[in-house]
Amino acid sequence: MASSIDHDLVILSCANSNPTEHGETLISITDIQSWDLSTILKYQKLKIQAHRSRLVEQSTYFHGLLSGSFSESNLECVSIQWNLENFVTVLKSMYDCTVDITSSNFLSLFETALYFGTERLIQSCKNWFSEVSSFSAPYLLEVPLDDLINIWKFGVEHAIDSIPELCVSYLARNFMWALSSKFFKDIPYNLLLCSIKDPHLTVTSEMHLSEGLLFWIHANTKQSQDLTDIEDGFGDVLKQIRISLLPLWFAAGKRRCPYFSELADESIKTIFRLLKIPPMCSIDVLGTGDLDHLKIRLTEYSKKVDISGCPQMKPAILLLSAAPPSCGNNLQKSTKQLTNSENFSPEQNGILQGLHPTLSFHSVEKVNISKCPRLHLEAIIECLSKSFPSLKNLKAAYLPSFKVTMLERLLEKCPHLSEIDLTVDLSPLIAKEVSAVSCTAAIMPTRSKKSFPVGSSSPNMASSYSVASLTNITKLILEGRTDLSDSDLQDISAFCGSLQYLNLKGCTSVTDVGISNLVLTCHKLHSLMVCDTSFGINSVRALCSPIETCDSSIVHSGKIYLHTLVRNLQILHIGGCKGVDQQSLVELISQTKTLKSLCLRSTNLVDDAVYSYSGSSLEMLDISNTRISGAALAHIIHGSPALKTLNVRGCKNLGKCESSSNSMDFSSLQSLCMWLADNCKLEDIALGWGFSSFSLGALRPAIMSVRAITVGLGASLNEEVLELLPTTCSLLESITLCFQVISDYIVMNILASLKHLHALALCYCLGDISMSGLRLHMPYLRTLRLERVAPWMNNDDLLTLTQNFENLVELSLIGCRLLNPDSIDIISNGWPGLISIHLEDCGEVTANGISSLFNCRALENLLLRHNGSGLHRNLLLDAAAELPMLRQVSLDLCDASDGDFDIPEYADRCSLSIVMIARCKSKKSSNTGFAKVHRKLLHNGTLVLSWNSKNLIRTVVKERL
Asked: Which residues does the UniProt record annotate as the domain BTB (predicted)?
């Protein structure tokens, strides 16, 4: 019996390639459960006594080695040349021990298991990867992207079909996660292609997919490689993009991309076919074939859906995307009816109700439909409720047609909503103090096909509203909604018991009483943004009033305080609120203890109010255009070590830093800057009056992490400081210099040092500036403003700018008087992705009209003033029809070829929400010395037309807006 047992034992001699101790040790397989790997892996050689029969049974490698005709089959000791830790793990698997598999050791274990032919470990590895690759939540992801890539390569090399398939599925379901990884560019072509073809590909939007693919192609091609080779090599990847669903601004901006230009052009054509431009009667938009190109990518793993910026988007497309394949031709027929219809009617609502079944995507919690002006909102609410029953966050910004009164139906259909954003453009009348000559409002009709001249109006339309329960709403953004009334606030406050964040910025129709009544009702409010509203004394009293529902008081520093809403505020923005007097500000600020963000710009702020502040949590402070002194500013900064954003532009009293009984001793603005440097690490700063080169030098420790800097009127920085700016603030992404003395060298230094600069604004600056300062290539620059600094600019210079700054989306040129009508072609062809164009006093650029500007298909903001009298009377009507995203237009009657402009009626304005038309009058003047009489144009007022969901408001002001 003893000889039989001895014959079954074999010694496995394993060399350790990374020993920490010399010598060898002998261990037995019978003690495998108690092996301490950290100990046995220290030795230079490890000898393991194992059962020959067990090895032969569990391993094909040992079966061939120990039971065949090899010489080793009768040896008592067999040498193993393999990674010791992995081999020990294989042995543990053979003897039914638990094996810990992770993404870091998966490949090495799998390879070891394959080499030694241990089916048990092979299956364990497969089971582990199958399990972990089924996860789709980011916090559950156990396989980093670089490991996933290596696992895929391993599966392909070893012809293990299940492994590549799992990798493809894993990547497809978690594509948004992969896009954020630094290893995304390393994904092999076949893995990428298979993943984006996978039916479970999960992306937030088609734009995200496109951006990722373009980044991958750029990273995997050499700059000198021929474009044909790129298209041949990676063309199949780009063909997977559903170009019908791209945002218009994205497609327009990619028309100059070398390997995406054709797709971009085709995308724009498709978008405009869906928009019925040209008319639907001459184009079969949907066709008769497969409609997959119109389906938004929705899967059971989708958590966010972003279709913002897609004017072609309609409820029918969303409905088509959410419908199961079994609906077939009947659904396609109904979808065509909805898509081809211009108005949403009760009959079409019946079509929506009758389409069954509709897939529900319960994982989707966020939907963004901003800037989709053609959405019929009654229909989209139906689609949202059916397709996304778990919807919590809806962003529907820049949709003026989305009436506040629709909240009732929206919340009835989507009861889980907790955050809603209904932002629209702010009225230009609140940007600055204006003197109104007249103001009239006309309620809009439901439909019209005509235009009317500047002096006419339109008939009335009534509406009714009753708000449903908003118990789940915690965040509500109504910024810019001039159609919001006190009665709307009353309805909201009655049902918003859980409201915590409220943004009413620019809601000019609500009163101080209306705001105060809402504040008194919403006891959980911790963020209130009411800039440029009638927020005043009543609202301050409401914030400072004891909360009746609270039973206890607060004890702080030995004093007893009643529970008030203001003590819980984290965000308070009351900039531009002139109704708050000095005494009320003192009362309000003295009670704020937990504020993180405070905006008091253009208010009656005085030092006493600032000295009364005793909080220590401020991260953002905006006191621009106030009378605060430097000593008072130092007081609030000294207690705010977390301050990251500071705006003191327009504060003329900062130089008054005399000591005060409430403050520390400050003898100059230099002392204040030293305090800033010692206490803060800023990320955004705006400076003005009193700041000099010395004070900015003292600020250096505080601004080393700044990403955006604005230097405005009243600040004076010398060339040496401006030269050091890119070095001091190496993270800068946005620079605005106003009324400074600059040179070519300064501009060249900024562009050369800050290659990732996103925005550059040079406004009303003096100095020796020429084109040589703007000749550097800046691929990341998105915003360029050259205002009264480039009078020398001609068409050749403009063409150079289009080549150096090819990715601009915002352009502002003022005072470039050498430009001519050809400049319009250069701008539109060079920057087809522009969303904002400001041209003022630029020679004769509009002398022949601006038809070529319509090539910038995604324009949202257009300003043309004093550029030549070639603008046709129907410019606004044509622009509204040709540019579906256009929301704001500013013109001057001096540029009108017929002396006037026609204004589109409500239903024909598309996305237009604000139109400003300035008027000039001529004044005779004479030169006494030469007796020469000539006419000079003087501003004579501005007509402001503002549309909301209810009214067209016509206001005439004296100022030029």
From this structure: 35-103
